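Job type: complex structure
Entries:
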Amino acid sequence: MNEIRKVISVIVINEDGVLSRISGLFAGRGYNIESLTVAPIPESEYSRFTIVTNGSPRVLEQITKQLHKLIPTYKVIETQDVVEKEMALVKIPLEGNLSGLDAILKGYNGIVANSTTDSLILMAVDDSNRISNFLKIIKKFKPTEIVRGGSVSMEK
Amino acid sequence: MKISGSGMVIEALQKEGVKVMYGYPGGAIMNVYDEIYKYKFKHILTRHEQAAIHAADGYARASGEVGVAIVTSGPGFTNAITGLATAYTDSVPMVVISGQVPITMIGTDAFQEIDAVGISRPCVKHNYLVKDVKDLPRILKEAFYIARSGRPGPVHVDIPKDVSAQIGMFEYPQEISLKTYKPHTKGSLKQIKKAIEAISRAKKPILYLGGGIINSGASDLVREFAKLTGIPAVETLMARGVLGDKNPLLLGMLGMHGNYASNMAMSEADLMIALGPRFDDRVTGRLDEFAKHAKIIHVDIDPSSIGKLVDIDYPIVGDLSNVVTQMLDLAKDKINPVDYEGWRALLKRYDEIHPLGYDNNSDKLKPQWVIQRVGEILGEKAVISTDVGQHQMWTAQFYPFSYPRQFITSGGLGTMGFGFPAAMGAAEAKPDKVSINITGDGSILMNIQELMTSVEHKIPVINIILNNNYLGMVRQWQTFFYDKRYAETDLSTQPDFVKLSESFGGIGYRVETKEEFDKALQDAIKQKKVAMIDVVVDRLENVLPMVPAGGTLYNMMLEYKDQS
């Protein structure tokens, strides 16, 4: 069956061990995790997980149901009508020709987040697939380190 | 009332109506044991933690109540894991309490420290590490509620030693409502109506009955539904006893060792009405050929069970008692049992062509005969536990189960060593029945130490060992699929089971003939003591029919002729 990419948000009670319940579920049942981000929802007892996964339709349905089955799970959001964004940080050496960097950063909602005498840290925030493109293009500046943040999403 | 965390545990157990708990003490759980002593709470000391969990499990399966067990930290808890996984796979309600090193020492690799909730997480419905005594009453209340509601399962509560010593306010919540956990118990009426429409259109419907019926207490309703509609039925291993052996609509058990008529019914049906089963691979065989002509109605309280392996045409999430009640109402004017007369006749014919059987004229004692004989002698007067292997399948095939909760077996996990302690729990739950453990010479040695528990607490479990000097089921697969290379399955080196039992203070019999077996069983029933009946059976008997793993249900191996 065809593998489909899916973004699932899970609202859970923010309690001890909840991250391991969710990651353990994925590991134990052999589901894929492309990325997973988690943070508390301000002024509430909940945390929000954004999980990007892929699998056949049957597997994706099971993932949703199994997530829902966890006792601390309040809500599983599986609508794909979402704004999905990802952040990336890239460190490049301050050497050679940096022409074109400005244009690339502009194209991917990027900025220079930090600079030292011998390197720059670039930051870009964009759709996940565009971040992948950004990281491909930025290769020509010979990055020494790349950090992807994982997707976060919000229903429209 | 201000009491210690340990006192809260006992108070909560009393409030939950717990009559007995099984366990084994140790350092980190001593505070609670001190309260067990002071309260004179009924506690049965098993001789291994695994057996404590299985005994609580057997008690829960036989009674329908929540089973309770208690163990210490570290190795006490790791020993309990097999028991938890066994109960989880078969959806058995239990609360298991473990001691933990004091909170101040967690994470320091302290003596007998292990990340208990980390280990139990995939083996339980839910678990808790109690970090403050003020949370303990709520957690215990939640633990019992979660264990018995929805799809039941074991819940694990890990209590550090300083928490069980702490003094706190004990107010036990009367009611409970969890924002994040609300099982769907009422089925959608719209879906149920559609399902009934589908049944009324079907020519060859089949009822596929699973263990969920027993958990829901819906057996009587299902019997009524079958009778009203005249739809033939097959049972899974976990559902044996739902319809009762004498029910003319019951074809038998289906699956890998199902009978011919049951597996053919599934293969030829045009509509499957699945009530609380989970489409286990031992039932379905090859999935793309499983019931391939049938539309499927699936009723289950666990949404994740529906559509997990097979696409479902009519999914209904709900408690079977509610859903079948509604189905009965709607079926009354819609479904006529006469419509299925031809279908029933065909299935009857199938059963006549290939009935379950064995060669009863052999001079060797056949294991199937032994089970049938126990059925003739005790019938409904026995509650039957088993271990895992050939004897388990023969018991499922040949014992005349007549009511739910009569058969106690590790279905999903297939845990050898389950039978004896589970039979101890069943004996406690059903004191008016004879508790029988039908076992094999492999399985019985996996929790043999429970002879001591049974002697001490006068638990009259009768262990019937179908002794073929083999790890029989594995030997059978080696015969069929591994060219008779019997790797590590010859168990000819054995103890003297009679002396073994006697050395613990139990009784023992070794029997080689039908007459000896009758005498031994009658005597063991009379003596009301833990017993071992070591029955020498035909060494090379196979469990048949057999659908090889991954095979199709309609291609059963019906007999095995030794070519060499």
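Summary: The longest strand of chain A covers residues 82-93. The beta strands of chain A are 4-13, 35-40, 46-55, 73-77, 82-93, 110-115, 119-126, 145-155.
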